[in-house]
Amino acid sequence: MDPVNALAVVSALVVAATAAGLLWRARTGRLPTRAEPAAGTDLAAIAVAHGTLGREATLVQFSTEYCAPCRATSRTLGELASAGVGITHVEIDLSGNPELARRFGILQTPTTFVLDGAGLQRARIGGAPRMRELHALLDELTGAGHVGAR
Amino acid sequence: MSERADAAAGIDPRGPRFGAGITAVLLLAVVALGALGLVVPALILLAALTALFAWGAFAGIRRHPWGALFRALVRPHLGPPAAVEDPRPPTFAQGVGLVVAGAGVVLGLAGLAPAVPIAAAAAFAAAFLNAVFGLCLGCQLYLLLVRAGLTRRASGAA
């Protein structure tokens, strides 16, 4: 391959990698806007097996061992839960448990499900959650405006 | 649980990303050399990078040469990190790099010359995404291993 073609190949590789990265960044951590009632009570049963359901909301986080964003997400969600407004955080380690991963179609970690006070699924978040969107949903579920307060 | 706490004494997350940046540039050089038909230099460079991945995977990310470079040259000019991170995910990602780059070297030595720049391109994509966007592709691969039933919980096993 002559140098011009080689340069084109290298440039195309960098452009493609950049595009993939930008696409990932645009989509990660978003909360879908439509409500998702599917698999609601299934998830609540699993959450109860690994923790407790919140009076207003439950944050069910699926993690794996070798997952840097899972640690950070665990910290932020834990802080939300300990703010004491009826929200709990349940973290489930998939590392020894492929059955759970397949059952809920987990394709990336962290994957966080937000359940309401009745244990029904209200959101599914892939990647580290966008906190502004999560605060907005939690405000709605707790019927208060203080979750997102700085 | 305590074993996990020991292992997870945190590292500055900017260190592995800095290292990933250097690795990405070098992997891109392998792709360029391969594209220019300079197969032997490409293979040698990829072999060197494979050795570095092996170092990082087995000695741990903390003892990686790029980590030492970061601490010596870059870290003194930065403020403290916003948070520390568990060193095990980036160490695991070095293992993934070892497998991908190693496959390129083995296939290249077996006479399949295109394998060298192709493997380097794949490893470049992962290193680049990590350095620029903070995305750990290798870590996400671990989940696929979990789903295939190829893993077990490391802490808690006898």
Structure characteristics:
heterodimer; A: 150 residues; alpha+beta; elongated; B: 158 residues; mainly alpha; globular; disordered N terminus
How would you characterize the overall build of this protein?
The complex is a heterodimer of chains A (150) and B (158). In chain A, helix 3 links the parallel strand 1 and strand 2. In chain A, 46% of the residues lie in helices and 17% in strands. Chain A is built from 5 helices and 4 strands, in the order ααβαβαββα. Chain A folds into 2 domains: 29 residues; 112 residues, Glutaredoxin. Chain A has a 4-stranded mixed sheet, with helices on both faces. Chain B has 158 residues and is mainly α. Chain B has one domain. The longest helix of chain B is centred in the first third of the chain and has 22 residues. The N terminus of chain B is likely disordered.
Element string of chain B (H = helix, E = strand): HHHHHHH
* Share of residues in helices of chain A: 40-55%
Please state the overall shape of chain A, judged from the principal axes of the Cα atoms: elongated
Rg from alpha-carbon coordinates of chain A: 19 Å
DSSP strand tally of chain A: 4
* Mean pLDDT reading of chain A: 87
- CATH class wording of the largest domain in chain A: Alpha Beta
Percent helix among the residues of chain B?
over 70%
Distance between the termini of chain A: 57 Å
Total strands of chain B: the figure is 0
Q: Which fold name is given in CATH as the topology of the largest domain in chain A?
A: Glutaredoxin
In quaternary terms, these chains amount to heterodimer
How are strands sequenced across the largest beta sheet of chain A?
A: 2-1-3-4
Q: Describe the sheet with the most strands of chain B.
A: none
Roughly what is the average pLDDT of chain B, rounded to an integer?
89
Mind sketching the topology for me?
The complex is a heterodimer of chains A (150) and B (158).
Chain A: H1 3-27, H2 40-50, E1 57-63, H3 68-82, E2 87-93, H4 98-103, E3 111-116, E4 121-126, H5 131-142
Parallel strand pairs in A: 1-2
Antiparallel strand pairs in A: 1-3, 3-4
Chain B: H1 2-7, H2 14-35, H3 39-59, H4 65-74, H5 88-109, H6 115-133, H7 137-147
Helix pairs in contact in B: 2-3, 2-4, 2-6, 3-5, 5-6, 5-7
